[in-house]
């Protein structure tokens, strides 16, 4: 990808939004095993890197380049400031040069907790599934408003294959969440540059720029305390839980062997889920940004009116309770909205909830609980009764800190606020994010207020909803956003269905296809002319994938084409094409090489003396395999006459009659400069190599190894000298 202010980053775990700079087209890798990024449009060329599934790439032009190994043509792409080629079969176009998104991969669930997937575009139809925040969806079609949704319904594909209807109110697309550098005003360009200078990683910028344009009074502050991303994910393992009622896909999100706690509904999450919810980039949107808000008291907008609006029709909206919360907020410098959201999250908005009635009577262990209140469920690690024991303080073996025992609603609201302010906000855990994931102050990953991994998103969205209702969204707010060292390009929720469409191998009549590469989908296979049938056998890389083909194939023509169709668990497909060609001989490449006088090591043909013509070696190749195809080129890559004498650096490509092909670099012993002769220049080149003033490499280094001991020493220099003195012949 061409470097700009932003290294864009949008996508999915199955995906995660990963924006990049807009060019002609934007595509993503659609095969879970990834694809090879090559220097030229040919599977025989150098692999620059492996590109992972769901990585976003910039497609430089509409043109598809022809080349071996990709029947659909090659795309020229840009990625990480490098240009090269990928097989277009494994790239899905998700955005064209007009900026329009083509159905899918650029939408995700963007509301806290979960949404319902319905069988029809109406809220009264059967619920098929519940999918949690961050779940990627492919938008197939749009349907008009109907009951259960204030906006349009969307027909979507999710979890790699399932389909159903969701309300578009809870789905956000790429364009809605990000602002591209190509759209910046001059002022915005300067602002983006400043965000980078402050310490935000490039992948944060598109999200921050979108919010900055929409809400110019918002202030974004990066917080990097030097923690390594891998250490953060590791440190949070075992700290987080997910409620089983939020998803019908629970098995993909919980740790191996996890069992339900707290009534059986809460399960420890696995590391992939931990990573997704830890990654601040996944929640840089209006809906969730308040999970990063500084939770100190702000008299400008933390008013009684705001608090009453937040409480709505709850009993807590009365003047009495609003006064308690406002007193606590001012006394301990903590946001009353934060206190209110915490009470809501813990169930305190229900006047009959056991932890806040004051009428519960029962034992917790040996402690008799009666007449206590705990609005924030402080100390309730396993149940609200445990929280009441904490509220009892000295009367149940505890202490009298924070005004305990809490024997009135007022005491519980104000005393609990003191606890939160003292132990969290005052200690550096001054955002909802930090109160769930303590990466703010040592000892890290401890002293976390809640175990619900979705709590910051849920409470953050509650704050957002209240602020929107009050018309205060454009006020000035400060958001303190963590940035970690060595963060991955993206994080995503665990993959629900395997998308691997690759084969491990293909056998034809019990013989492996030579040089089989799962990325290469088209092959020639040669059989003798008297062959009437062949047997096919193929093995998939993934146990969950299937492959369909005819096991026995009749060869009625000189060329027979067969297809092997691989279907992944997700429904993704890939087709391998084999052309079976009848020939007089099926000599292998090894058969040819074994009959040559030259020495073949890796990609080199060695032990060739000066004045040796290419024809002499090609004649030997033809004797071994009359149907072999031979291409002879000079060091510049131009085809030359076979009457030429060999010179170091030339290439000889041999394709045997059974379809095996390999290119060899010619090594003429002693010819270190590639002119086909041994002169004083070659002696000087070996000398400079030994003195480290000008190093030889590849075939020229091989040519300097005149005694074939796999190293270049003073002995090789002497041998070149003796050749020049006619004392020996190399």
Entry summary:
With 730 residues, the chain is α+β, with helices and mostly antiparallel strands. It is built from 18 helices and 35 strands. Among the domains are: 73 residues, SH3 type barrels, CATH 2.30.30.40; 131 residues, no CATH class; 81 residues, Immunoglobulin-like (Sandwich), CATH 2.60.40; 145 residues, Dockerin domain (Type 1 dockerin domain), CATH 1.10.1330.10.
Comma- or semicolon-separated keywords:
single chain, 730 residues, alpha+beta, SH3 type barrels, Immunoglobulin-like, 23% helix
The residue-averaged pLDDT reads 87
Instruction: Provide the CATH architecture of the domain at 586-730.
Output: Orthogonal Bundle
Measured distance between first and last alpha carbons: 49 Å
**What is the assigned CATH homologous superfamily of the domain at 586-730?**
Dockerin domain
Strand content: 15-25%
Kindly identify the CATH topology of the domain at 586-730.
Answer: Type 1 dockerin domain
The poorly predicted ranges are 1-23, 96-105
Shape category: elongated
The first-level CATH class of the domain at 586-730 is given as Mainly Alpha
Number of helices: 18
Main beta sheet: 5 strands, antiparallel
Strand order of the largest sheet: 8-7-6-3-9
Determine the structural class based on helices, strands and strand pairing: alpha+beta
The amount of helix comes to: 10-25%
Q: From the alpha-carbon coordinates, what is the Rg to the nearest angstrom?
A: 34 Å
Strand segment count? 35
């Amino acid at each position: 990808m061409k470097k700009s202010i932003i290294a864009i980053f949008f996508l999915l775990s199955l995906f995660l939004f990963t924006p990049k700079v807009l060019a002609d087209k934007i595509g993503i890798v659609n095969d879970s095993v990834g694809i090879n990024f090559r220097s030229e449009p040919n599977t025989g060329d150098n692999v620059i890197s492996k590109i992972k599934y769901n990585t976003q790439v910039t497609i430089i032009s509409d043109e598809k380049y022809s080349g071996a190994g990709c029947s659909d043509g090659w795309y020229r792409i840009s990625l990480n400031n490098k240009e090269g080629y990928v097989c277009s079969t494994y790239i899905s176009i998700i955005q064209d040069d007009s900026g329009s998104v083509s159905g899918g991969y650029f939408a995700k669930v963007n509301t806290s907790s979960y949404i319902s997937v319905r069988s029809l575009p109406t809220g009264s139809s059967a619920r098929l599934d519940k999918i949690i925040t961050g779940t990627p969806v492919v938008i197939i079609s749009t349907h008009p408003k109907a009951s259960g949704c204030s906006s349009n319904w969307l027909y979507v594909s999710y979890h790699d294959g399932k389909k159903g209807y969701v309300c578009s109110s809870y789905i956000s697309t790429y364009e809605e969440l990000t602002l591209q550098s190509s759209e910046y005003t001059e002022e915005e360009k300067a602002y983006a540059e400043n965000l980078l200078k402050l310490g935000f990683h490039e992948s944060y910028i598109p999200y921050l720029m979108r919010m900055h344009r929409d809400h110019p009074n918002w202030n974004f502050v990066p917080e990097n305390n030097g923690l390594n991303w891998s250490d953060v994910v590791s440190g949070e393992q075992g700290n987080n839980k997910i409620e089983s009622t939020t998803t019908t896909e629970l098995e993909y999100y919980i740790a191996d062997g996890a069992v339900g706690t707290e009534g059986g509904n809460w399960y420890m999450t696995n590391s992939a889920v931990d990573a997704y919810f830890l990654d601040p980039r996944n929640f840089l949107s209006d809906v969730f940004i308040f999970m990063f808000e500084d939770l100190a008291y702000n008299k400008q907008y933390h008013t009684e009116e705001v608090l009453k609006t937040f409480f709505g029709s709850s009993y807590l909206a009365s003047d009495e309770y609003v006064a308690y919360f406002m007193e606590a907020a001012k006394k301990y410098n903590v946001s009353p909205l934060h206190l209110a959201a915490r009470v809501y999250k813990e169930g305190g908005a229900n006047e009959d909830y056991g932890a806040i009635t004051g009428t519960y009577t029962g034992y917790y262990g040996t402690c008799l609980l009666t007449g206590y209140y705990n609005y924030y469920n402080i100390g309730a690690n396993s149940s609200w009764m445990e929280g009441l024991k904490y509220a009892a303080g000295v009367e149940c073996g505890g202490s009298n800190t924070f005004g305990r025992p809490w024997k009135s609603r007022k005491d519980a609201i104000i005393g609990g606020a003191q606890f939160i302010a003292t132990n969290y906000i005052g200690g550096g855990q001054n955002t909802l994010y930090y109160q769930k994931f303590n990466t703010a102050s040592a000892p890290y990953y401890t002293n976390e207020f809640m175990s619900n991994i979705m709590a910051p998103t849920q409470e953050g969205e509650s704050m957002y909803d209240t602020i929107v209702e009050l018309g205060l969204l454009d006020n000035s707010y400060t958001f303190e956003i963590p940035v970690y060292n060595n963060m991955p390009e993206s994080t995503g929720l665990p993959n629900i269905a395997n998308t691997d469409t690759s084969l491990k191998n293909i056998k034809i009549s019990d013989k492996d296809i030579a040089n089989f590469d799962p990325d290469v989908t088209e092959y020639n296979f040669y059989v003798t002319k008297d062959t009437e049938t062949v047997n096919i056998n193929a093995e998939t890389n993934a146990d969950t994938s299937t492959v369909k083909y005819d096991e026995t194939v009749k060869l009625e023509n000189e060329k027979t084409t067969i297809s092997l169709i691989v279907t992944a668990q997700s429904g993704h497909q890939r087709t391998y094409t084999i052309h079976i060609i009848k020939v007089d001989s099926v000599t292998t490449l090894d058969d040819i090489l074994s009959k040559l006088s030259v020495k073949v090591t890796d990609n080199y043909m060695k032990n060739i003396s000066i004045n040796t013509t290419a024809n002499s070696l090609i004649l030997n190749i033809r004797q071994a395999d009359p149907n072999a195809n031979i291409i002879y080129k000079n060091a510049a890559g131009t085809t030359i006459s076979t009457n030429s004498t060999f010179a170091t650096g030339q290439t000889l490509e041999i394709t045997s009659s059974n379809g095996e092909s390999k290119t060899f670099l010619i090594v003429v012993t002693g010819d270190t400069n590639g002119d086909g002769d041994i002169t004083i220049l070659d002696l000087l080149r070996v000398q400079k190599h030994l003195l480290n003033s000008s190093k030889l490499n590849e075939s020229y280094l091989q040519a300097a190894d005149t005694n074939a001991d796999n190293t270049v020493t003073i002995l090789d220099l002497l041998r070149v000298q003796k050749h020049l003195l006619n004392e020996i012949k190399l």
